[in-house]
Amino acid sequence: MTRVILVLAVLILGSTGGEIAITYGMKATGEPARLRPRALLQFLGRALRNGWFWAGVPLMALSFYALLVLLSWEPISLVIPASALSYVVGTLGAKYILRERIFPRTGPYSATLNRPPGIRVGSEFSGSRLTTGSYIGLFLK
Fold first, then answer.
1. Both 79 and 138 in a single domain?
2. Are residues 80 and 128 in the same domain?
3. Number of DSSP helices (H) and strands (E) in the chain, helices first
4. ∠ at Cα 68 (27, 74), nearest 5°?
5. CB 18 within 8 A of CB 60
6. Per residue in 40-97, pLDDT tens?
C-alpha cells in the first residue's frame, strides 16, 4: 500500500508540476502575432526555446509512466478516481504559483452542476449504448 501511495504522489505531483511549468512557459512565450504559417512557426520556435516548457515535458512523461505502473498494480476503479486529486492540486498550483484568479463556479463539472433549473440532462440509453447525457445523468441522480 505504501508503494501505491508513493507512486500516486509521483503521478499527481508530476502531472501538476508539468502542467504548471508548461503553462508558465507558454504564458511567458506569449501568443502568435497572427494565425499565419510564418507567425505560427515563429511562435513554435519561441515556445521550444523556453526552459519552462522543457521542464514540464519530462514531468508529464513521469506522471504518465506512474499512471501505467499504478494501472499494472491496482484496478482502474481505484487508480482513476485517486488520480483525480491532480485537479485539486492543479487548482491550488494555479492559484498560488501562477497567481491565477480561481472562481468558485469553474472547474471540470461546472457546466453540469451549475446548470439553470429546467435544463434536463438526458438519462436514456440509445440502443445498447450509453450516451454522454445519460452518463452524466447517472451521476446526477
1. no
2. no
3. 7, 2
4. 125
5. yes
6. 999 989 989 999 999 999 999 999 999 999 999 999 999 998 899 999 999 989 989 9
d(CA 135, CA 123): 7
Q: Are 129 and 81 in a shared domain?
A: no
Split into its structural domains, the chain has a count of 2
Q: What is the C-alpha separation between 95 and 118, in angstroms, rounded? A: 33
Question: 1-42, pLDDT tens digit by residue?
Answer: 899 999 999 999 999 999 999 999 999 888 888 889 998 999
Specify whether 98 is located in the same domain as 110.
no
- If asked whether residues 71 and 12 sit together in one domain, one would say yes
36: alpha, beta or left, given left = phi > 0 and alpha = psi -120 to 50? Answer: beta
Q: Tell me if 111 sits within 8 A of 127, measured CB to CB.
A: no
Copy the grid coordinates of residue 45: 520556435
**Domain identity same for 94 and 111:** no
Domain of residue 116, residue span: 104-141
| Grid coordinates given for 117 | 433549473
